[in-house]
Structures are given as C-alpha cells and as structure tokens.
Amino acid sequence: MKQKERYEAILERFAAHMPSPQTELNYGNPYELLVAVILSAQCTDKRVNMITPALFEAYPTAASLASADEESVFELIKSCSYPNNKTKSLLGMARKLTSDFSGEVPDDIDSLMSLPGVGRKTANVILSVIYDRPTMAVDTHVFRVAERLGLTTGSRTPLATENKLTANIPAELIPRAHHWLILHGRYVCKARKPECDGCFLADVCRYRERELKKGVGQ
Questions:
Q1: Please, are residues 8 and 177 in contact by the beta-carbon 8 Å criterion?
Q2: 121 a catalytic residue
Q3: E strand or H helix that includes residue 62
Q4: 59: which of 21, 64, 140, 193 fits an S-S bond (Cβ 3.0–4.6 Å)?
Q5: Catalytic residue among 86, 96, 139, 164
Q6: What is the CA radius of gyration of the chain?
Q7: By 3-state DSSP, what share of the chain in percent is helix, strand and coil, each rounded to 5?
Q8: Max Cα–Cα distance, the chain, nearest Å
C-alpha cells in the first residue's frame, strides 16, 4: 500500500469509529488544562483526574497558584509521578503566566514553551485542544502507533514523527488525529500486547501485515 493510500484509509477509519475524540483529562478552562497536562507527564490521566479537583479548588487561578508555597502544592500532588519536580514546574509556570501573560494561557508555541514545565509536547496539546491549531503532540502512544500503522518509517525522534504526521494529515484533521492516535495506543495498540485481532485498522496496518507474514513463514 502506498503511503498516501495508507494515510487516507487510516484517517477515514478513525473518523468513522471516533468522530469526536476528546482528551481524557478533566478541565474547565485553559489554565486547568495546562496544569493537568504538566501533571500528566509519565503519569496516567486517571491519576491526574484524581488529583486535580482538590488542586483546582485550592488554586482556581494562575495568580492563586503563583502565591502558593511548595509544601502545600506538593501535598496535593504527591500521588503523581515526580511530585517534587512537578511542584516546582507548576509554581514556576503560574508565576510566569501571571507576571508575563496576565494569567492568560498564550496561544503561540514560543510563549508556551517559555513557561517552566512546558515542553513542545505540552505546548502542542494546549494549542490543539484549546485553540484548535493543527499541532501534533507526540507522546509514547503517538510515536508507537504511527510507526506500527506505517504512518512513519524508522522515525527516531518525537519531532521527526510530528513533522511527518503534520505533513501528511490535512490540517483540519490534525487536532482530532492527535486524540485518535493517543486513544488507539492507550486502549487497542498497546505497547506490550496490541489487540490486533479486534482492531478496525488491522487490514491497513503495517505491523499486522508483518506479523501475519512471520506466521506464514514459521
């Protein structure tokens, strides 16, 4: 299957099976999503969603979080991964957001990445989810699923995967495609044991093709 045909077939299937995919992080405004995404690094969305209600109640705005002390924030987020580092990132983010952006989450990647704790992936999530921009946040799921499906070939870095996907997916579909790939990796195309037999993409998946060829050759 040619690359263009593969992209078209996969995107068409995703659109049919998941017409309105959404982030699984709970949030009520851009500030809350930014906090949640920072917390989600190497941590499950389920765990983050258990942490954020109390955190948002205590610090409902960037200004209130900016004035918090490390110990208080740490106590609220200590059940997530790397709580010490994330406490520092959240406080640094809130203080810069308050001082430099009047507490408003910016809508450009350079400004977002100037915030402590915000790398390219986090910035792309905010731009995609909040501002509906054609940005592709590449986490471990997106990186793995894109390679298995055949959307990328031998991609070595998240940025290489991001560039390949954004070059081949229509701009208007990229915000949804970001969620399609994440959710597919989370629930179907799992790292250790992909559920190929029940996958709606099995007949257009490069990984599945190769696995079937291995079976025939054995």
A1: no
A2: yes
A3: helix 62-66
A4: 64
A5: 139
A6: 19
A7: 65, 0, 35
A8: 64
pTM of the model: 0.91
Question: Could you state, in order of their start, the residue ranges of all structural domains in the chain?
Answer: 3-21+136-217, 30-129
Write the pLDDT tens digit of every residue in 50-97.
999 999 999 999 999 999 999 999 999 999 999 999 999 999 999 999
For 161, half-sphere exposure in the C-beta direction (CA atoms, 13 angstrom radius) is 25
Q: Which listed residue (121, 190, 193, 197) is catalytic?
A: 121
Overall fold of domain 30-129: Endonuclease III; domain 1 (1.10.340)
Task: Residue 54: count other Cβ atoms within 10 Å of its Cβ.
Answer: 12
CA distance 69 to 85: 14
- Whether residue 88 lies in the annotated active site: no
Region for 56 from its dihedrals, namely left if φ exceeds 0, alpha if ψ lies in -120 to 50, beta otherwise: alpha
Alpha helices by DSSP H, 67-173: 70-77, 83-101, 109-113, 120-129, 140-149, 158-168
Query: Torsions phi, psi of 102, nearest 5?
Result: 55, 30
The CATH fold of domain 3-21+136-217:
Endonuclease Iii, domain 2 (1.10.1670)
Residue 218: predicted pLDDT: 44
Intrachain domains 3-21+136-217 and 30-129 with the same fold: no
